[in-house]
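Pilot study result, target chain (163 residues):
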Amino acid sequence: MIKINLVPLKEKKKQQEYIFILLGAVIAIVLATGIFWIYIQKIQTKHDLNVQIKKVEDESKGYEEKIAEITAFQDTEKRLDAANKNINDVQLVQKKVVFILDQLAKNLPDGVWLTSITQSGKKDADSFVADGCAFTLNDVKEYFDSLTKTQGLSKDATLEIKS
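Predicted structure:
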């Protein structure tokens, strides 16, 4: 049996070249499609991250409002604490004044009367000056001794007799 090659050798080579070119084109298309797909994925990821950033920024604006509210509440709390401290200071001074007036009236003997009671300035709120009159010097001394013996009154009280 005799074999005859009907396709010339050049044609066969051209067919092989076309196959290689076609195969190369297919590979190039597949690679280009893969690269394009990766590019699209990167763009999608970038878009998703931008959306998340926008959400976080919007959420942080809400937190800024809450922080401002908390700061306002803290300022109000500080003012209230200062007001409470002032009220407590005033109440303490009131208690002292009432106690002193009570002791001055309770220990007042017959023959002695008070004409005025003044509290010293802000620097020494625990100091009081009582002016009064008495029939005898002995009554004044007795009154003064009874005041210094009273619990809660200062032991460093002084007596000044004018006439």
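One observation from the pilot: The beta strands are 112-119, 128-134. A full batch analysis is planned for the follow-on phase.
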